[in-house]
């Protein structure tokens, strides 16, 4: 068993990640302006920026969804109970005792079971909620003549804000968990370089060396 | 010999005189000339006459304009009578009550000085039958000298003016030369309409709030359409007429025009914003324009584009409390108190023994309500509920019907008399010099109500009191330049302009609704959990080091 630097975040995934970071920050800021939490920029500017950022983000998501399915990356997010308990035990107990993280990242499975579930919930529940309600908001004029539209726009607005707070809560957890490793840099680095330290079995190492040499950095 | 100096002086004088003449020409050119008329009325033989009375002039007009009087007689300007097509209620000045001087009946000669005719002095009778009773000049005079005697039932001033006589506009009366006036006629301009409509309710801007003397020559800030230094619209530019019938009704308003502008080259026939600006007035290719166009479905144009009314330094009356009328000063005489001063230093009465207490306001923000264009009145046939505030006119409309939009209103508030036994608003006899019953002079409400009831064909039980009333006046004039339109955040915030309108979703108007509260709770729990987790890690590490 050897620990090697293996590329687990290809360029598109990194671009997707940092694109989302930027757009989500912009949309949270302008969204909270529209919701009335702050008044740091004029309302019409917030409408402009929020809407165009939303359109960009939806475009990015379309590419990301395509990417997930064409590359098979979606399989990383399949929920599993295998090892879930150990990870939960680690974060709620072992981490305070200085225990080692029970999960070993594989090059074909980059998330621990808890992490995979969290991302899956984000992608299947919170993100769709915010963009379905967001599109409903943008296109209100089309369905406004329908019966009960006054009631449904309230539901749409409240769900949209709820989902926004959900994303914000996710970001808080996401940032906090970066502090739980050896160093923050060690957690962030793969999202810049694409390479992370992965423990490989001799067979895996041999396979990568032989068939996907671009994914593995030469051993030091 | 002529010195150089005197030559220079002569030259300068000539130049100045020339400039002055040019200037005079520019400013005195009557707007009516723009109608492109092919007739110079001063050359017409029928008008070369020293007219003694208004009807004589009308007869001369009718010698060419044979159908004009018949057309005018079909109009609400003449009949003061309007049967509402939806509710069937009899409206028009002949029938409605208001919260100013209440009603016309019994006060005819004063009120009918703004009737478009001569000599209508009894509301129980239809207007005078004679065709020559139609007053052509009040609308078509271009000399700006024609004025009616305020208590003359439509009769104009003559060549002799009584000392101190004033016009309905509050200006000193001038002698009227009917021949000169008759020869000047042209299309109506702002002054022709304004001389009555700007002074409704007994004085400058008292009634409407958005129609005042400031509209004779408004700046663009006061009215972007009518600005004399801008588009210079006359009233008829929007209130288009056909055979002396005008578009634009306050009783049956087109609250939402879905037809929009006519096809190119066709005339527009309604006095709505959309009849010129069409139904998608903002640039749909920009995001904000698209958003504003979608506001149009439920928000009247006026709501954003008339952020304030009673502009241009002319205040409007906002409160009129009749219950305090009739006080006398130490000498036992009626008196006035001028307790309101505009920003420009104009004084306005806040108490008048004849009328009670007033309040005024200028540059006012309208109040907003759903409005489908239909208005009903608490006329004598309607029972009122005096336990609350009585609506003198009732506007209808709601979020759920297709005709309604949110409209701006001036809400006139006050107290006015009602019959405590019959629960009806009362019609006082106010005006009538020398009369035994007119309140202005006899100061006896009972007599005034008896006479008012008799004149209006209603009843008076003999007991009265004053009830709080409100009256709604849709605001549609004094459209501001687009730079001054209501900004998004004036409504999209807590307690914004539309805060009183229940049941509508305005993003930003309700920060921390249920979704926001639940979301914030989730965020706080997350933050709390993270902090506790971090503290526990800190102490865990400390324990390990100690061991």
UniProtKB/TrEMBL annotation, chain A:
Location, primary (coarse class): membrane
Record key words, sorted: Cell membrane, Membrane, Transmembrane, Transmembrane helix
Protein name (record): Thiosulfate reductase cytochrome b subunit
Membrane topology of this protein: Multi-pass membrane protein
Domain of life: Bacteria
GO molecular function, one term: electron transfer activity
Location of the protein in the cell: Cell membrane
Organism encoding this protein: Aliiruegeria lutimaris
PANTHER family to which the protein is assigned, alphabetical: CYTOCHROME YDHU-RELATED, NI/FE-HYDROGENASE 1 B-TYPE CYTOCHROME SUBUNIT
A single Gene Ontology CC term: plasma membrane
Gene3D superfamilies in the record: Transmembrane di-heme cytochromes, Chain C
InterPro entries according to UniProt: Cyt_b561_bac/Ni-Hgenase (IPR011577), Di-haem_cyt_TM (IPR016174), Hydrogenase_cytochrome (IPR051542)
TM stretches of this protein: 15-35, 47-70, 117-139, 151-177
Biological process according to GO: respiratory electron transport chain
Record-annotated Cytochrome b561 bacterial/Ni-hydrogenase domain positions: 9-194
From TrEMBL, chain B:
All copies of domain Cytochrome c-552/4, residue ranges: 60-140
KW Membrane (keyword) present: yes
Signal sequence segment: 1-24
Keywords assigned by UniProt, alphabetized: Membrane, Signal, Transmembrane, Transmembrane helix
Transmembrane feature ranges: 518-539
Gene3D superfamilies referenced in this protein's UniProt entry, alphabetically: Flavocytochrome C3, Chain A
Official protein name in the record: Octaheme c-type cytochrome, tetrathionate reductase family
Native source organism of the sequence: Aliiruegeria lutimaris
Phylogenetic lineage: Bacteria, Pseudomonadati, Pseudomonadota, Alphaproteobacteria, Rhodobacterales
């Amino acid at each position: 068993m050897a620990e090697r630097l293996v590329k687990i975040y290809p360029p598109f995934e990194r671009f997707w990640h940092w694109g989302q970071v930027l757009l989500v920050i912009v949309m949270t800021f302008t969204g909270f302006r529209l919701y009335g939490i702050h008044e740091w920029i004029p309302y019409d500017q917030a409408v402009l920026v929020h809407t165009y950022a939303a359109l960009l983000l939806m475009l990015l998501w379309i590419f990301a969804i395509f990417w997930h399915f064409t590359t098979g990356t979606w399989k990383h997010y399949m929920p599993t109970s295998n090892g879930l308990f150990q990870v939960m035990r680690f974060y709620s107990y072992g981490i305070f005792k200085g225990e080692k993280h029970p999960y070993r990242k594989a090059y074909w499975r980059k998330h621990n079971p808890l992490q995979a579930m969290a991302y899956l919930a984000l992608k299947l529940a919170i993100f769709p909620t915010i963009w379905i309600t967001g599109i409903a908001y943008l296109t209100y004029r089309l369905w406004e003549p329908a019966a009960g539209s006054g009631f449904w726009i309230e539901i749409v607005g409240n769900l949209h804000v709820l989902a926004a707070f959900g994303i914000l809560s996710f970001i808080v957890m996401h940032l906090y968990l970066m502090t739980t490793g050896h160093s923050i840099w060690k957690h962030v680095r793969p999202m810049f370089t694409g390479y992370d330290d992965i423990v490989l079995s001799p067979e895996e190492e041999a396979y990568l060396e032989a068939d996907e040499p671009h994914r593995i950095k030469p051993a030091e | 010999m002529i010195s150089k100096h005197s030559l220079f002086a002569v030259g300068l004088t000539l130049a100045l005189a020339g400039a002055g003449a040019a200037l005079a020409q520019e400013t005195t050119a009557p707007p009516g000339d723009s109608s492109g008329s092919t007739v110079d009325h001063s050359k017409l033989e029928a008008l070369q006459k020293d007219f003694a009375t208004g009807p004589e002039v009308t007869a001369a007009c009718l010698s060419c304009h044979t159908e004009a009087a018949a057309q005018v007689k079909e109009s609400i300007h003449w009949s003061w009578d309007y049967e509402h097509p939806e509710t069937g209620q009899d409206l028009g000045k002949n029938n409605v009550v208001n919260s100013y001087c209440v009603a016309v009946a019994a006060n005819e000669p004063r009120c009918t000085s703004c009737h478009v005719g001569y000599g209508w002095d009894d509301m129980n009778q239809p207007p005078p039958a004679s065709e020559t009773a139609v007053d052509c000049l009040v609308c078509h005079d271009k000399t700006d000298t024609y004025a009616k005697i305020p208590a003359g039932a439509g009769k104009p001033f003559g060549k002799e003016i009584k000392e101190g006589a004033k016009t309905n506009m509050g200006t000193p009366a001038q002698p009227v030369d009917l021949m000169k006036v008759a020869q000047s006629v042209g299309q109506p301009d702002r002054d022709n309409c304004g001389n009555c409509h700007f002074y409704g309710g007994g004085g400058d801007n008292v009634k409407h709030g958005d129609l005042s003397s400031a509209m004779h020559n408004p700046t663009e800030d006061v009215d972007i359409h009518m600005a004399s230094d801008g588009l210079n619209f006359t009233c008829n530019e929007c209130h288009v007429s056909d055979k002396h019938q005008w578009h634009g009704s306050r009783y049956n308003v087109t609250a939402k025009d879905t037809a929009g502008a006519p096809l190119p080259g066709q005339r527009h026939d309604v006095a709505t914003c959309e009849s010129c600006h069409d139904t998608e007035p903002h640039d749909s290719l920009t995001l904000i324009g698209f958003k504003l166009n979608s506001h149009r479905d439920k928000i009247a144009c006026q709501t954003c584009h008339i952020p304030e009314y009673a502009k241009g330094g002319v205040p409007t009356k906002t409160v009129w409390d009749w219950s305090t009328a009739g006080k006398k000063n130490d000498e036992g005489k009626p008196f006035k108190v001028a307790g309101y001063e505009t920003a420009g230093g104009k004084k306005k009465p806040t108490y008048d023994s004849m009328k009670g207490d007033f309040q005024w306001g200028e540059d006012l923000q309208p109040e907003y309500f759903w409005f489908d264009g239909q208005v009903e009145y608490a006329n004598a046939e309607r029972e009122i509920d005096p336990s609350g505030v009585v609506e003198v006119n009732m506007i209808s409309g709601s979020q759920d019907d297709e005709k309604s939009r949110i409209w701006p209103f001036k809400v006139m508030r006050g107290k006015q008399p009602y019959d405590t036994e019959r629960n009806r608003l009362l019609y006082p006899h106010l005006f009538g010099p020398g009369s035994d019953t007119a309140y202005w002079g006899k100061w006896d409400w009972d007599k005034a109500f008896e006479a008012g009831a008799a004149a209006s064909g209603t009843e008076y039980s003999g007991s009265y009191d004053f009830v709080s009333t409100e009256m709604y006046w849709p605001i549609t004039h004094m459209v501001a330049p687009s730079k001054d339109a209501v900004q998004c955040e004036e409504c999209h915030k807590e307690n914004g302009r539309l805060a009183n309108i229940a049941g509508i979703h305005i993003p930003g108007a309700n920060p921390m609704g249920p979704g926001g509260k639940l979301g914030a709770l989730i965020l706080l729990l997350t933050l709390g959990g993270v902090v506790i987790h971090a503290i526990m890690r800190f102490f865990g590490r400390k324990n390990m080091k100690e061991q």
